[in-house]
Amino acid sequence: RLPVHRKTVPTKMKGGLVLALLVACLAGSEAFAPAGIPLLARSASSRAFSTPIGHGSAGNTLFSAARASPLRAQRTAPRMTVSLPADTPLKVGICGATGAVGKEIIGVLETRGFKVGELRLFGSARSAGREVETKFGKVTIEDFDLERARELDVVFVSVSGDFSKEWCDKMAEGDDGTIVIDNSSAFRYEKDVSLCVPEINADSARKGSKKVIANPNCTTAIGIMALWPLHKKYGLKKVLMSTYQAASGAGAEGMAELFDGAKAVVDGPEGTVAPNKHFAHPLPFNLIPHIDVFQDNLYTKEEMKVTWECQKIMNIPDLPVSCTSVRIPTFRAHAETIVIETDKAINPDEARKVLAEAPGCVLVDDPKGLKYPMPLTASKAYGVEVGRVRQSVVFGDKGLEFFVCGDQLLRGAALNAVLVAESLMQPVGTDFNPKL
Length: 436
Fold this sequence. Notes:
By secondary structure, the chain is an alpha/beta fold. Helices cover 30% and strands 20% of the residues. Helix 10 (375-378) links the parallel strand 12 and strand 13.
């Protein structure tokens, strides 16, 4: 034990030292932070990411400096290079392999020619033991096991937010942990987790603070493919969006409810109304302007996700984004009407060229030929269809309106996740422009 020298510090200095230490601690002084771990900025004027309304916040103001950020207040972890070998067959795992997105991930791995040396499929206890035919051979579905998952190079997770919160960090932690690409909302708003659309911000995943990478909400992933190239060319000032979202956004159960309900209405007597279990109201022959829970500001959480995620992915923290989300009676592919105001004057013909050349976008814009984006043509396609491009009569020469449609199970989930993994095979600083 070190001796205590009670008279080393003069009495008059004690109060000053204590006060200085207290002020430094309260201020989060970097003088007392571990080397190489900068503290988060605490600017009172910052409104980069307001708290998800309805989660402990008060009032109806969209942005408020008084609220904590949905990016959790924490020290920024040291950066690392997160990568995968480009020329070596990988050990790949899928959690939730029997779900709608899990099945699509298997299909994307197959069609993209992803080099899989070993494939492990983790499913529910009910599915465990069942064999699945894949391009990579027969694979037996397993109960999830942490140690087996950590043996893999990359694990795609598409189960639930609760599952992700419990297991993703445990799979990824340490030098021997695996890379985890998570489809839930569990990590999207964490400061030190990349929220990645690789054609836009691949380096946020390659230079991550941890090996957990978040996939965005499906609605965001579709619309942002058109927003990003327009922002690079003209600068986004405001974004107004209305989304028309298919039943499959609620999973296989949602599609089954739509199918069974439509059949009941068609086969039943006049006036038959379909039953509803997974949706707030009957969906067949109806529209429901309500997806996810309502927040204090009367937007739904689905709508606010678009705001928060567009700001984070494009790194435009103050970009005003307003969204209204509507569930519609289609099986697959989400559609979105998007209106933008830009910093620079925008010409529709030039904008069409920008969109036609943008990675991940497919221009479908021939009104005379009756060609425009639709769920029928966008379903099961990798590209996001963009059309109905026109000058905004509200914002004039600095405004544009257009319509997009994309497969939310692919671009909005499975395809994006696999592309994230592919982008990790390229060096930091490399633009990711995959052929789709």
